[in-house]
Write a structure and sequence with these properties.
This protein has helices at residues 6-15, 22-45, 90-95; strands spanning 48-51, 55-62, 65-68, 75-78, 81-88. It contains three helices and five strands, in the order H-H-E-E-E-E-E-H.
């Protein structure tokens, strides 16, 4: 799977007619970055952060576990950590 690059997003913004310049498209990117930062701040104090009507980001906790090193099959300890889950809505399904 190929990664979506910032340049690809800027090109899509310009093709959609939202901005006629790369600088204007960069302003849209800055807005998206601000939204992501707002979601991160919300997740710092809450478990769920809905993004509009299309996506919900949730924070979950994974307990410590034992895994396997794929290179040699040796058992390794995996530390506990917080992870993020992204859930899509049925409205997003209709768009895709």
């Amino acid at each position: 799977m190929e990664r979506l690059k910032k340049e690809d997003i800027i090109e899509a913004i310009m093709e959609a007619g939202i901005s006629e310049t790369k600088k204007g498209a960069g302003d849209v990117i800055a807005t998206v970055d601000a939204v992501i930062e707002a979601v991160a701040k919300k997740l710092a104090v809450d478990v769920k952060a809905p993004i509009g009507k299309y996506i919900t980001v949730e924070k979950a906790h994974k307990e410590a576990s034992i895994g396997r090193n794929p290179a040699n099959g040796e058992a390794i300890n995996i530390a506990e950590k917080d992870v993020f889950k992204v859930k899509k809505s049925s409205q997003l399904d209709k768009l895709v």
